[in-house]
Amino acid sequence: MTPTSSNDATLAGPAVAPARPEPAPPDQERERRPARGPLIARRLAGKILAAVVVLWGAATVAFFAQLALPGDRATVILNIRAGQAQQRTAAELAPINAQYGLDRPVIVQYIDYLRGLVVGDFGTSYQQFRPVTAIIGEQLGATVALSLAAIVFAWVIMVAWVLLTAGRGPRMRGAGSTVDVVAAGLPAYWLGIILLLVFSLGLRWFPVISGTGVNGLILPALTLAIPLAGFMAQSTRAEFERALEQPFVVTARMRGMGDWGIRLRHVLRHAVIPAVTLSGWALGATLSGAVIVESIFSRPGIGSVLVSAVNSQDLPVVVGIVTLVAVVYVIANLLVDIVYTLIDPRLDIS
Q1: Number of structural domains, the chain?
Q2: Is residue 54 a part of any domain in this protein?
Q3: pTM across the whole model
Q4: Does some domain include residue 299?
Q5: Do the domain assignments include residue 157?
C-alpha cells in the first residue's frame, strides 16, 4: 500500500463535520404556526353550534313537559278563564282547541312551537290573554338589574376577602376558608329574611318593600351576592395561593414591588379564572334565584311572574321564562369563553 504523501493530505484538507441545519428565520417560523384568527373563529363556531343544540334541547324538554302534565290543556285554559275547576264538554273544548291549535298532530304543534321561539314568539298567556314576550318584557328589567347588581357585589366581596386573607398565615387562611364555606351554604330565603329583619325592620336603613329604587336594590342583591361570593372565593383562593408561589412573584419582589402591588397587579389576574367561570353560571343562577328573593322583598320581576304562572298553570308564561333562563345561561358561557383568552393569554385556543 502506498503511503499518502504530505502533499496529498494538504490537498485533501481537514475533516469537515456534518453541517447542522440552520434555524428557520422568524418569518418562516411564524408561517408554520396556524393563524390565531381562524383558530378563534373555529372555536367560536363550535361553541355557537353547541349553544344552539343546548337551546333546542331545553325547548324540546319544555314542550313535551306540557304534554306530560295530567289533564287536558283546553280544559285548563277554560278553567283559568272561569276561575274554577270543573269538567268541560267536547262542545266547550272545541273552540279552545281550534284557537290554540291543540287539535293538530303533536309534530305539527312542535314545529310551530320551535318556529315561534326562533322569531321570539312564546305564545299567548292563558290567564292574561296577552303575548308572553310582552309580559316578560315588562318585568325583565327589574330582574336583570337585580342579577347584575348581585354579581357586581359578589365580585367586590370576593376580591376584597381573598386579598385580605389568602396567603396570610395559617390562622388567617383558616378563617378565610371557613367564612367561604359558611357563606356559600347560606340559603337565600333564610339570608334574605335575616337581612330584612336587621337592616329594614331593626335599623330602618332600607325599605321593607323594595320596589324598583336603588335603595331597595341593595338588600335583595346582597341576598344573592353573599352565597355567590362564597362559591367564587373557594375556587379563587386556591388559585391565588398557588400563584403566590410562582417565580414571577419572586421576580417582582426582587424588583422592589410591595405585597399589595404583587397581589393586585400580578397574582389576582391569574387567580380569577375560576371566578370568571362561576360568573357565567351565576348570571343564570341569579335569574332563577330571583324567584325567592323577589318574593321575600316584594320586588317586581320575572320571579314573581313565574310564581303566579305556576300557581295558575299558565304554561306559555312558564315555558317562556324557562327558555329565557336557558338562553341567558348559554350566552353567558359563550362570553366567558371569550373573556378567558383576554384575561390569560396562556390558555390554548386551538
Answers
A1: 1
A2: no
A3: 0.69
A4: yes
A5: yes
Residue with cell 500500500: 1
Q: How far is CA 233 from CA 107, 156, 183, 192, 228, in A?
A: 47, 11, 10, 21, 9
What CATH number is associated with residue 316? 1.10.3720.10
Name the grid cell of 254: 426582587
Query: Tens of pLDDT along the chain (350 residues)?
Result: 444 444 444 444 444 444 444 544 544 444 554 555 676 677 777 777 887 888 888 888 888 887 777 767 777 777 777 666 667 777 777 887 787 777 788 898 888 888 888 888 888 888 788 888 888 888 888 888 888 899 899 989 988 888 888 777 778 878 888 888 898 888 888 898 899 898 888 888 888 776 667 788 889 999 999 998 888 888 888 778 777 777 777 777 777 777 777 777 767 777 777 777 777 777 777 877 887 888 888 888 888 888 888 877 788 888 888 888 888 778 877 777 666 655 555 554 44
Q: Look at residue 114 and tell me if it is in a domain.
A: no
Angle made by CA atoms 20, 23, 27, in degrees to the nearest 5 = 155
